[in-house]
Amino acid sequence: MTAVPIGIHLGWIGLGTGAVALLVLGLRTTRHPWHHLLAFLVPAFTTLSYVAMAFGQGTTTLSTGRVFYWARWADAVVGATLLLLNTALIALPRSTSRRNALFTGIAAANGITMLCGLFAGGSTDPAARWTWYLIGVGAYAAVLWMLFVRVPAQARQQGTPARRRRMYRRLIAVLIGVAVLYPIWWLFTPVGIGWVGAPTALLVFAFLDLLSKAGYGLLLVTQVRKLPESTRGW
């Protein structure tokens, strides 16, 4: 049996622990249930992807001999999108057609970004790999524009309290500050320019997942507990 990289073990143990902690916090409160549920689901989904990889599932050996851990990207289509929407809900707790359209745009653009990462990782042709990478960067630029421009603009139009808008700005800055490390680190991995090996690449990606999914989820629910309950129950 092939030895499982330590990064995968770090991933399922750390994220599983974070998911349990978020579940306990959610069960012990009656306020902001949706924020707690979404915060729990993110590391829970990602834990499943790491467990699959630990058993040799969710991976493919390409013609070049490189092992492609595609389960990480398949999970990110769901997990990373839920992270963004959970944060945007702080600024836009009231459901409107404009808000729902904006959230759909965020989800779609982020999903495209993650799918581009999936296709790039599974490409053996350098031209295809870098084309997918650049398309993904473009899609993520659209995500950033919506998060930093459109969400605050709609929050002001909806009359969202200043306290909520300030909390959103702080949290989204933290989340994106960690998220942009993913494509930067991707450049140094075997899929990019290959400055580090697969075990090191997986270890750093696991650490980033812990920060952005379990750690950030705990930060988010800790912050939203300070807010009064909204009329929509978010």
Structure description:
- This protein has 234 residues and is mainly α.
- The chain has one domain (6-224): Rhopdopsin 7-helix transmembrane proteins (Up-down Bundle).
- The chain is built from 8 helices and 2 strands, in the order H-H-E-E-H-H-H-H-H-H.
- The protein has helices spanning 6-27, 33-54, 71-91, 97-121, 126-158, 162-179, 181-188, 198-224; strands spanning 60-61, 67-68.
- A two-stranded antiparallel sheet has the order 1-2.
- The radius of gyration is 18 Å and the shape is globular.
- The model has no long low-confidence stretch (mean pLDDT 91).
User: How would you characterize the largest beta sheet?
Assistant: 2 strands, antiparallel
Mean pLDDT reading? 91
Total helical segments? 8
Distance between the termini: 47 Å
Q: Please state the structural category.
A: mainly alpha
Query: In the residues, how many domains can be counted?
Result: 1
Task: State the CATH topology.
Answer: Rhopdopsin 7-helix transmembrane proteins
Inertia-based shape: globular
What is the element string, with H for helices and E for strands?
Answer: HHEEHHHHHH
What's the alpha carbon Rg, rounded to whole Å? 18 Å
Q: What is the percentage of strand-forming residues?
A: under 5%
Any low-confidence stretches, pLDDT <50, length ≥5?
A: none
Question: What is the CATH domain class?
Answer: Mainly Alpha
What is the CATH H-level superfamily?
Rhodopsin 7-helix transmembrane proteins
Question: What's the number of extended β-strand segments?
Answer: 2
